[in-house]
Fold each of these.
Amino acid sequence: MGTGILVAGTTSDAGKSVVVTGICRALSRRGLTVAPFKAQNMSNNSMVAVDAATGDGVEIGRAQWIQSVAARAVPESVMNPVLLKPGSDRRSHVVVRGLPAGTLEAGEFAGGRKHLAEAAFAAFDDLRRRFDIVVCEGAGSAAEINLRAHDYVNMGLARHGELPTIVVGDIDRGGVFASMYGTLALLDAADQQLIRGFVINKFRGDVGLLKPGLDSLYELTGRPVLGVLPWQRDLWLDSEDSLALTSRPAHDGDGALTIAVVMVPRVSNFTDVDALCLEPDVRVRFVDDPRALAGADIVILPGTRATLADLEWLRSRGLDVAIVDHARAGGAVLGICGGFQMLGCEISDPHGVEGHPGASAQGLGLLDVRTEFGPDKVLRLPSGAALGAPASGYEIHHGRVEVGEADEFLGGARSGNVFGTMWHGSLEGDELRVAWLREVAAAAGREIRTGTVSFASARDERIELLADMIDEHLDVDALLSMLTDAPVLPTLSGTLR
């Protein structure tokens, strides 16, 4: 049977996903079979994998999908057994082992998850039987003491698997030493024994300046800082966390084409625009105000987990009028999944998939399309062609789209300069992305450089850079030794004891 390790954090967006991705590739380089694992995601950024037994599509968190690529493993739903997709501030849709499994209300979050814990532990045990090492990612903070009694994502998982745990802290936010010490101190004695060291992430400057703090933290806790990872602007990857989106680089290319991505409140699968951010003649910016559409050549409405609510949000800010005016003035518009549905004539939810049975709304009316939400979720990996180029992507949606007077486009529709697709990830295909950019550039009277970027190669290069950073700045040998060593470590006396 294989072993495992838990990468926990002091906060959300401390860099756990990035660290796990880098560790997965670094260990794979050493000839180990590696699997990523996150017991529970809370994210609307997901991906479709294929169930090996049935051949059907299953849904997993995007971060675990990219981590499986880094580990050179086939992505499986078992790598992310529980996925919570927020539909509102108090209600999440639940996905278990890749398939819909009802909803979870805020009041049930603490005590109503026993069945989810059982599914998560069974999935972890399955992976550990088949891989040399399972690299687990925690969620939020390891010291969510209000949730500890029912936790199966952080120290609850560590206790189940007897996993040595490292705690990652983001020094760029400030207070990293206090947050690391406090995280450890708030845990009970048994949990503390599993915390074996710390990793400081996103450091800028001379590491020598940290030495007094590193020494003091070791003296206070008996645990070393295993690495200080440098801050790198271009190391963001397929994130699961919307917190990371606010620091995502809005690519400032030469500006031949300007793309405005409308950041609806419940945005999902925002990685759909990643490939555009790499194009040298494309400037991508994220906007939430109608005035920010001025000067844009293309407006993109991304996917959303709450189509009707986010459509109302567009109207409340005047973005609906701004998008329609942009299209009527000859500007290009691309809607993806929920964003595509908003571009249509009508959206109805007779079954209450989004929480309000019988709800309906008029869309922006730019495409002759009508959408009705059904209880069954579509999970597919479609392929085909568009604009003379091969195309592929993935579908994750409840909406059933009926297209009227419009041309077909990637499982969706097109009318002139307005495009709508149900396929997430289609722009990651180099040939399709180039064909689409050339078409919209020509319509705008522009010439752009295209065909110089391979998105798949760029992604793998970023993974390799992460692994290089892990090898250079993290004591991987010490990490591996944790899998067999079990020293007795000091217990801190926190305020709860």
Amino acid sequence: MEKTVVLYPGFIVSHFVPMMRLAGVLIEHGYAVSVALIDPAVNLDDAFAAAVARAAASMPSVTFHRIPLVDGPLTPGAHFILNYLDIVARHNDRFHDFLLRSFPRGGVSAVVVDSISVEAFRVTRRLGIPGYVMFTSNAAVLSAFVQLPSVHAEARTSLKFKELPDAPLDFFGIPPMPASHLFGDLFDRPESDICKATVASLIGISEADGILANTFESLDAPAVAALGDPRCLPGRVMPPVYCVGPFVGGVDVGGQTSKQQQQQHECLSWLHGQPDHSVVFLCFGSAGHNHPEEQVKEIAVGLENSGHRFLWVVREPDANAVLPNGFLERTSGRGLVVKNWVPQADVLRHTATAVFVTHCGWNSVLEGVTAGVPMLCWPLYAEQKLNKMRMVGEMGIAVEMVASQQGLVEAAEVERKVRLAMESEEGRELRTRVVAHKEGAAVAWDDGGSSRAAFVRFLSDVESRWPQPARSGEGK
């Protein structure tokens, strides 16, 4: 019987891309891979549909299945987490039917879901299929997430709620941090539906049969050690954690970049004409974050005054409408502004790229690390502030763009940090440290490397549970 793993990656680009890297490695190890997707129309962001289309076109060995929408797409203006969890829950019956219809009894070795789709474990448990989480962030964030429900419960009994967002929270194995660096909603409105749903989702991660983390041990050693310590989750059993990264966009585990992407995108052609290590690359994530117009103008002035070359992704339909008058003309030749998707991993690996201004999403951090490019941190949401703390402190591969009390990163700060990264001894030290981590990332998937060994352990665990006779569809 053919061994098949079903991937259920949800509908966030930053979760989908690492899952497709996982698909490629599973195929290399002799598994058939089926990707079950709630109709991409569920997410009104065109970036997700485009990412799915690129993956389907470039991975003919992977079978993609569309699960028809139930009750329409994400509700505009609704809270994202509640929206997401609700959509996954109301597609459980159709996911259940897909698994029963598409595979014979015992035909699925495992199901891997993204970290916000743990509601789907109700289906896998019903059918007797092992269920794993693909955790697309790092070991420190995973450690914080699995501890957060109990830390939150303890904090509720010891502190006033209004003090919690700025109060340091203690986690085993990672430095204390303000609650606002993770999920502010847990502490701003502790009795809300948002809080209850988030806590339930975080608990669900630790109830998986195993967790695949998109990191590698040498980058995340203290947090990896913490996850293996019983004190991390007292009174409960932590499932096995397999650090199998780095899975990054545009690059297979073997390190081959997408030549098709390189040939197609204008920004790569532009980079070919720039000197080595001369360009500052600014990109704030696949979610298409738009800065306020005032902030865009401050960035533009800072870049112009720095005198350095730049490639800047400005996700606005009309960049001329938000950029300072004459900016594009004055910086013509040394700067390029693009408004659409760029092959970020390929941009970072280009010899012309010197510094990466990033929102600190973990996929972007890994792409910077594997390219050996130092970073300037501009965290925006989710766990990005925790990532920033570690990048600046423990890893020493970045410095922070500091906002004013009004929340604006001013032009002078942009200019100062660009010059620091490009011109100073501190900038050279950042590059030295990130290149060391780049080498660690390369070794992780070599024969005998930590990520390759972790992946083999994961496959051994899957095979020890297979074949499992699927139960009938009772309990739907």
